[in-house]
Amino acid sequence: MSMYILSSHEIKQLAEELRASHDVYGPQVDPQTQQVFFDQLGDVDALNLEAPIPSMPVKEILFPQMEQVLKYKYDAETQNVEMAKPYVEKPKVLFGLRPCDLSGIQVLDRFFLGQEFVDDVYLTHRRQCLLISNTCLNPFPQCFCVCTHSGPDADEGYDLDLTKLQDGYLVKVGSEKGQALADAHDWKPAQAHHLSEQKAVVDRCIDLFPEMATDNKAWVARVMNRITTGFVKSETWEYIGDQCFECGACSFVCPTCSCFNVEDARMCDGECERLRTHDSCSFEGYARMAGDHNPRQPVEDRRNKRFFCKLSYPQSKKYLRPGCVGCGRCQWVCPGDIGLPNVVQYIRREITE
Amino acid sequence: MKLMNYKACVCNLCGTGCGQFLKTDGKKVFGVAPLIAHPVSKGKLCIRGWHSNELLSTNDRITQPMIRENGQLREASYDEAIALVVERMKQFDGAAGEIGILASARSSNEDGFTLGRLAHQVFGTRIQGIGAEAGHRKSMAALEHAFGYPGAHGSLTSIDKADYILVIGTDITRQNPIIGGNIHAAQRRGARVVTLSSSHTQIAKLSTRHFRQKPGTKGLLVNALAKALLAIRTANRERRADVDQMPGYPEYVASLRSISSVALERASGIRYEDIEEEAKFLEQARSIVFLFSSGISGLDRPTIDAITNLALLTDRMDHEDSAVIPVAGISNLQGSFDMGVSGEPGNSVFKALAEPDSPIRALFVVDHDDGIIRDKERISRLDFVAYACAYKNAFMDLAQVVFPLPAYNETDGTYTAADRRVQITHKNVDNPHGVLPGWALFQQIAGKMGQSWGYQDAAGVFADIAATVPGYADLSHAQLSKGFGQHWNPKAFPNSRQRKFNAINIEYWESPTTPEFPFALMIGKAQHYWHQNNLMRKTIVPRREYDQTLWLYPQGYIEISPEDAAHLKVRDKWLVNVCSSTGTCMKIAVKISPDVQNGTAYIPYFIKNMISDFLIPYENAYAAGEESVIPIKIQEA
Ligand code: SF4
Ligand code: SF4
Ligand code: SF4
Ligand code: SF4
Question: Which chain A residues are closer than 8 Å to B34 by Cβ?
């Protein structure tokens, strides 16, 4: 695997150059609110590789909150149906992915592409995607990827991986696509000391994690064990359930949540559109089955489903990693106090008590 | 550098006023993101806010003006529709009470203000009202008497710092979930959160202390707390304001003294000793926030008076983290009051419609929830009805002329949240049909009736608001665009420094239940009580959540406690006969809920239409919300 060292200027140049043939997405800071979004770049100068973790997960690009997945028109007289595919394939670059978001994409890939069926909409968005990850130099509030093996540096799944060092950006190549890009340029090869510098940067970042996050590391495994074997006390789930406001936010911001809802809506001109929207297991209607039977009616059971999905062995086997990538977003957005790291704490408290 | 696809705005789906980003390309709204820096919502949104994109992209929009011809609405041009409104309105005498205005609590301040001008200066009428105002006027009157101005005292952000938070009778985690979340966070950081509510609501579960009083006794309980507080006060305590010098103090204290602990306990089911214990915490708190629901399912006036009085009595209201906030369910209820389009006693459009011999003949209506159309019969017999709204709804059937309006993100506008925070939402999406904003439509009608207003844009309208509406003088679009809004300034009211106690009456509520009709039925509490669901019905996921309830209980439901269900020998979803003491009966499914007290029963607000025959004799009780009780008996069907 080859490695190069690029100046900040060369990185910007690369982004600019890619913009000619790709839609380039990257972290940007909204000037008014200082909020970070991983959004399409209108101008490479907006690309901010030092910005904190984006407020919304990168899944928004591949699996957006709401998307038209089919358009059709039924002519009752001729009994003819016209159908159209409203989503299109566009070459994209995801420039400066945080490692946790990169892991999130891998989980989504396994869900949408790796199982019994292949989701054509997701595939269309995903097919021509260049993934460029970016090592975190320090954790952001609520981050705990150290517990879930998804950061602060990326170890697989990228085409190119960036780490900011003293001399510039260390660029690691992770795929043939990435290598092709490198070959087309006259980048300066990196030296051995750059690699050890990178290791130091990552180690320093790990040291900077708050104690609770690193301390949770061993606990995540134990909590997974508890959740898988069903040994969590019902009072603990109840305590968690009482705090759920059923907003759905935890699922919407989670880089690995993949549940969706499909709905056909009639448009004004007689055409119909099929919309796919994000969904959440925190909603009562989510799991309703025919015959009035809702297997997850009480709210504490619906919570428990989410944590099962994020932290249990059967799910990990499916995703080849824990369903949680430690981004901490569910903790920011929860109007209760039951983001995933807290739930680990609650269960941990139960175990130690 | 501005972001390409994310635009900051204010959620328009309740009076909390959360900060929100819309993900949009300027033509459509694809998604939502919470706004982390917003001082109230701090990066959180509730289920409604998270699904605004679904509402904003519904195909259920009114797209152009329409005129009724031969009983059918047909498309028309603005010129034609406006000309018709002008022609018809000229035939009525506004001053004689022939024209009524029905404004919307979701309209922007700019739209509300210009609608007021249209009514007062052009149509010459004062007969007016706001769709969902019932109840909020009582809050405004009580607050104005107590604090000298009609609006909340203090800010919602006080919740984050106050020592003590009292939540009175609102199912706040459902109705204003983000306020509920902030209260929960306050409890976790150590604030004392106390809830008064007859049912075991989520906020009750999350409170430090829940007083589960019998229905109809919240006000009594608040007064009892005041009595206990007074009793533990010593002469040399640290004073801030001279509470005992405030007008109404002697009468108030005399009333409090008359509270009998025996009668209190009998009526409310709460022991006075428990209240005394609570009073100690209240006395120790340095900053106190009072929250109560206002608007369509708000409290009655005596209860609100009891709350404002207790607030003054605590002597902590001058602390910067203290507050008394009437929590509004609809986004711009406060702003609509500020803009002067509410119906005050003597000029209420609801009264005009309800009184059979009132002179009203024409109605101009903006965005009215179809679930709460009152006096439909009368409206359908009026000579002329004009209706303006962004979304299709049943009110269109009653109108001769219909105008489209932009959705809240398709035009610039300001909205005033429950705590007087005025915030701006900028246009971030083009209305695909190029419809006129409300203020521009009203200006055109005024123009055709010979009055030129000269507004170029919404900012210009706002400049006029700043010049005329008390408290808004320091505000402008330019300034509001910089941060996350600003509270309007109470100091603009001459009496804003003066504090007064409201007069109270100690009444021991006697439950109207009898051995024959042993259940106290209340209306209001509901799992999916979302704006009477008019707007949420146009979404996908929240609508499914609402439908979920209806699927399970297609005939609607009545909630009773598990113990009562056992006595009645009924199970969940079984049909029962419910009969009221006035003789009306209905068949309805039982929903067993451990959160309901024995001897009480709840019917959710939104199924009102399904059981309207049953409720006919109780129209007033219905309007009074959870504080009123209908005695019923429940029998196996
Ligand atoms: S569960 Fe929470 S912390 Fe884990 S990946 Fe999802 S949003 Fe991030
Ligand atoms: S969770 Fe880890 S990888 Fe993700 S932003 Fe935080 S530090 Fe970086
Ligand atoms: S974010 Fe919190 S309150 Fe909202 S659904 Fe998730 S767990 Fe429940
Ligand atoms: S609490 Fe109100 S303002 Fe906030 S997101 Fe929910 S509906 Fe919108």
Answer: 55, 249, 333
Q: Hey, is the C-beta of A30 within 8 angstroms of any chain B C-beta? A: yes
State whether the beta carbon of A58 lies less than 6 angstroms from ligand 1. Answer: no
Domain count, chain A: 1
Q: Which ligand is nearest to the CA of A209?
A: 2
Can you tell me the distance from the alpha carbon of B603 to that of A205, in angstroms, rounded to the nearest whole number?
56
For residue A191, being part of any structural domain is answered with yes
Centre of ligand 3 from the C-alpha of residue A337, in Å = 8
Domain range for residue A296? 3-71+86-352
Q: How many CB atoms lie within 10 A of CB B64?
A: 16
Cα A30 to ligand 2 centre (Å): 20
Confidence of residue A289 (pLDDT cuts 50, 70, 90): very low
Check CB contact under 8 Å for A35 and B35: yes
Is residue B606 very low, low, confident or very high in pLDDT (cuts 50, 70, 90)?
low
Say which of A261, A284, A337 has its CB closest to residue B188.
A337
Q: What is the pLDDT of residues B351-405, one digit of tens each?
A: 999 888 999 999 999 998 766 667 888 999 999 999 999 999 889 999 999 999 9
Question: Residue written as tokens 């019905």?
Answer: B537
Q: Which residues contact A286 (CB under 8 A, 6 or more apart)?
A: A259, A279, A280, A296, A302
Q: In what order do the strands lie in the sheet with B288-294?
A: B209-211, B192-196, B164-168, B288-294, B323-328
- Kindly state whether residue A122 falls inside one of the protein's structural domains: yes
CB proximity under 8 Å: A 43-62 to B: 43, 45-46, 55-56, 60
Q: Identify the pLDDT of residue A290.
A: 44
Q: Which residues in chain B have their CB less than 8 angstroms from residue A249's CB?
A: 34, 44-45, 50
Among B174, B176, B169, smallest CA distance to B14 is for: B176
CA end-to-end distance (rounded Å), chain A: 49
Report residue B311 as tokens.
């607030």
pLDDT tens by residue, A194-236: 999 999 999 999 999 887 777 777 777 788 888 887 788 888 8
Of ligand 3's listed atoms, the one at least distance from the Cα of A280 is 5
The token duo for A171 is 């660029």
Q: Is residue B170 scored above 80 in pLDDT?
A: no
The interface predicted TM-score (ipTM) is 0.93
Nearest residue in chain A measured CA to CA from B204: A242
A81, part of any domain: no
Asked if A337 and B547 come within 8 Å (Cβ–Cβ), the reply is no
More confident residue, B579 or A95: A95
Cα–Cα distance, A237 to A253 (Å, whole number): 22
Question: Does A221 reach chain B within 8 Å, measured CB to CB?
Answer: no
Looking at the CA of residue A100, tell me the nearest atom of ligand 1: 5
Could you identify the residue written with the tokens 């409720």?
Answer: B615
* Contact (Cβ atoms closer than 8 angstroms) between residue B379 and residue B129: no
A78 domain-assigned: no
* Element of type H or E holding A9: helix A8-19
* A contacts of B206 (beta carbons < 8 Å): 242-243
The gap from C-alpha A55 to its chain's centroid, in whole angstroms, comes to 11
